[in-house]
Amino acid sequence: CHTVPRELGGVGSWYRDFTQVSDEDVLAVLTGVGAPAPAGEAMPTARELVIDLDGIRLRGDLVVPQGARGLVVFAHGSGSSRHSPRNRAVARRLQSAGLATLLLDLLAEHEEGRRDLVFDIPLLAARLEAVTRWCRDEPAVHGLPIGYFGASTGAGAALRAAAALGDEVRAVVSRGGRPDLAGDRLPLVRAATLLIVGSRDVEVLTLNRRAAERLVCLHRVEVVEGATHLFEEPGTLEAVAELAIVWFLAHLPLARASEA
Hints:
The protein is of the alpha/beta class. The chain is 33% helix and 21% strand. It has helices at residues 23-30, 85-96, 115-118, 121-137, 153-165, 202-212, 236-257; strands at residues 45-53, 56-64, 71-75, 100-104, 146-151, 169-175, 192-198, 219-224. Strand 7 (192-198), helix 6 and strand 8 form a beta-alpha-beta unit.
């Protein structure tokens, strides 16, 4: 320590944000996820965004690895945000696999306390659609095939948006999601869809299997053994990330190549 102030007080008082580091973030560092790039390898570009949608300012974090093979936009669940440690852990794994990620708050700061908006799936889907269209003109990700990663209720919004955008969205991955909340839009989804559910999340697993029966696109239900709804059990979140990587890499570049 170079200098100790005379009136040090509590260490936390010197930080704008002194929240606890999650177990997932610690494990990610210990296992090398998010570690510095090896010598000679370019670091991904990362920046905070503010996207203005007709006066509604949405905040997001965009990370683009060099030579990115696709862009994955995250739709968070009820009560969550772009700061979700689980989604950030998955995003880091996707980045290490060469996928750009956009972790986005679909509600503005002044809206976050309104529970009616948190569960307004049509509203969240419409904003996700607008952000996806914004990505078309963003130089950092222009031309990249787009996929969605939805968690909890965010999966319903992701599937509803994918149904509206057709071939603009190539793949959707749901983690412990509520695809049933996409309602009558499920048969309209054209994106390859992977529904990941924990084996111990019995009610949600039932809802996912029923929703899958209404999908006519390429789809699969993947059950992670021993996992509960939040995938807090050792190794389960890592399993989600690996399944998502395989799915996105299989379907994003494939769809892009088919246009040639």
